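A quick aside before the break. I want you to see a complete sequence-to-structure record at least once, exactly as it would be stored in a machine-readable document. Don't worry about memorizing anything.
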Amino acid sequence: MVHPMGKALDFFRDELPDLFARGVALLRARAAGGDERAAAKLADIMGARGLGWLTLEGAGEVWLSVADGEMRHIDARTPGEPVRFALRVPGEAVDVALAALAGAVDLGSEKAALRAAGTASARLERAVGEAGLDFHLILQETPDFDEVLIEIALNREALPDKPTFTATVRWDDLAAMRASGMNLQQLFLSGKLRLGGDYSRAMQVGMQLMQPPR
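That is the input. The structure line, written in tokens, reads:
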């Protein structure tokens, strides 16, 4: 699956919802077969509800709606629906990342579908709470850019002008984390994930999500 320049919008509008649907179907089948972990994950996804707002600078924006285990692209914000996830990132960086991903990852695999389904989480929504959470993720020394700034807000109506905290990591360290199975806490303790600003609430949310589901 190849993503030429300028196709990032198509991925988020069309392919991500399809991947999400396949991931939910996989979890549903596994849960029906007695897989308790799959059942818990499915319940978490089914309980998630709200909107995702992605701004790809230089390309446009995408609105996604998640409810009852379904993700779909919508033309504009649905009145009354909470914004669970807002993100702004350079469109060119997303195009390059998707092209690299298409060459390195089988987007038709069960693993890719399950990860797509995992982008919705009622537990995360509850953990972040009404106060919301916002930060900047700074990726340094990426293969194609010196630095990529990703602005992220959870349970917020819009991205603030100034983030509550920043998280900075080198691209190679992030790739090594994914390959080794290391988590973000271990990356932070190793000194390779550098945090600045008031990240106390982020740490609280992270600790809460590490607890077993009730």
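Two observations worth writing down. Residues 1-120 form one domain. Residues 1-5 have pLDDT under 50 and may be disordered. We'll return to this after the break.
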